[in-house]
Write a structure and sequence with these properties.
Strands 7-3-1-8-9 form a five-stranded parallel sheet, sandwiched between helices. A two-stranded antiparallel sheet has the order 2-4. The protein has one domain: Rossmann fold, CATH 3.40.50.1000. About 30% of the residues are buried. It contains eight helices and nine strands. It is globular and about 50 Å long. It is an alpha/beta fold. Helix 6 crosses helix 7.
């Protein structure tokens, strides 16, 4: 489609950086629309919004560097989004939404054969049989659905403060930020709930607002 990957150079994680010990491994949970992207996708993309030019302009500068540095050190990165697979039924043209749309973005940013971001696998009944690190559902529950999948996959105990402190959220919705804070998680932008959510929408998020200490 559109010859997307013919001229795209793939990167690899920085192998010279020694991974952190397992007990120091952090779980970064990133929202998608207006956090990774500059403009909201509307949870649906078709036509020009599926072209490489549009997508690469819509991804915030520094996002790929943040991810490469985090995973090279042994940290985990999840994308937790209200983007929903069912949105594709809203139009009659070729379109992507939900897991497929986010994976499409990630394949363009990191390369067609990238394995950094993978969606969950479901059976015919829609039940998750293999959890990935792209979690997309219009759950409207402050992303508790996403949270439970992440906690289960990471084998964390929600009642263990030390486990919860290893989760770092980056999201542009105040209610979601507040929920994660109440669970004992860290917020990647360590401001008030409102300022943290507002900062997540800025184009310079990954280049100017995320402290290096969070991925050292």
């Amino acid at each position: 489609m559109f010859g997307l990957f013919s001229n795209r150079k793939e990167k690899t994680a920085e192998s010279e950086i020694k991974p952190v010990p397992p007990e120091e491994r952090r779980i970064y949970v990133l929202d998608f629309d207006r956090t990774i992207t500059k403009k909201h996708t509307g949870a649906l993309a078709y036509g020009k919004e599926m072209t490489p030019k549009f997508i690469l302009r819509n991804i915030k500068k520094g996002f790929d560097d943040f991810v490469y540095k985090a995973v090279s050190q042994g940290h985990a990165v999840y994308i937790a989004s209200y983007n929903d697979d069912a949105n594709v039924d809203r139009v009659e043209v070729e379109a992507l939404s939900g897991h497929a749309l986010i994976k499409f973005y990630m394949d363009l940013v990191f390369g067609k054969d990238q394995t950094i971001f993978v969606p969950s696998e479901t059976n015919d009944a829609g039940k998750i049989i293999s959890a990935g690190n792209i979690i997309a559902l219009h759950s409207q529950d402050l992303k508790q659905y996403h949270f439970h999948i992440i906690v289960q996959k990471e084998k964390f105990d929600q009642d263990n403060p030390e486990d919860m402190k290893r989760v770092y959220l980056l999201d542009d919705e105040e209610e979601v930020v507040r929920f994660y804070m109440e669970k004992g998680c860290n917020i990647l932008i360590p401001f008030s709930v409102s300022r943290s959510a507002q900062t997540a929408t800025l184009s310079a998020l990954f280049t100017s607002y995320i402290p290096n200490s969070f991925i050292n």
